[in-house]
Amino acid sequence: MPGTGPVRTMPEAAAAAQRFAAAQGLHVGEVMQFSNGYYVELLDPSGHGATEVLVDPQSGDVRVEEGPAMMWNTRYGMMPANQPAPAAIAPEQAQRIADQWLRGNQPGLHAADATAFPGYYTLHTQHDDRIVGMLSVNGQNGAVWYHTWHGQFIAMQEQP
Length: 160
What we know:
Elements (H helix, E strand, L loop, with lengths): L9 H13 L4 E8 L2 E7 L5 E7 L6 E3 L3 H4 L19 H15 L4 E8 L2 E8 L2 E9 L5 E3 L6 E6 L2
Antiparallel strand pairs: 1-2, 1-9, 2-3, 3-4, 5-6, 6-7, 7-8
């Protein structure tokens, strides 16, 4: 969705994402600011994870996040399923898979709790108790997709 100009604050990022979300009957959940832009979690009417979007700070453009939100999302992604299979992997398993992957690929980091989206989970990566990034785990096969595009974590807020 084309933006309306620069986005400089998390409330402005949330407002841009809400304009995008409203067309799909969704609403904004978590908003995170990174050095490369804003990440926004979109929730369905019952408050469950629906998809993830990015807000460009220069233009205010909103787009579905590349990676898992496009490729693994069985409801809002590029290839939605008519009857998505229930996740074969539970949230706790996704966190264990993420921690194992982080030990081998990003030593010193660990995963926080898993947030479920249709077909996958997204988890904050942390150093001690400080967020440093994100990764996703496929809900069917346990594949891990590390989010390299965000840059450095700056701040986070939950929408009411």
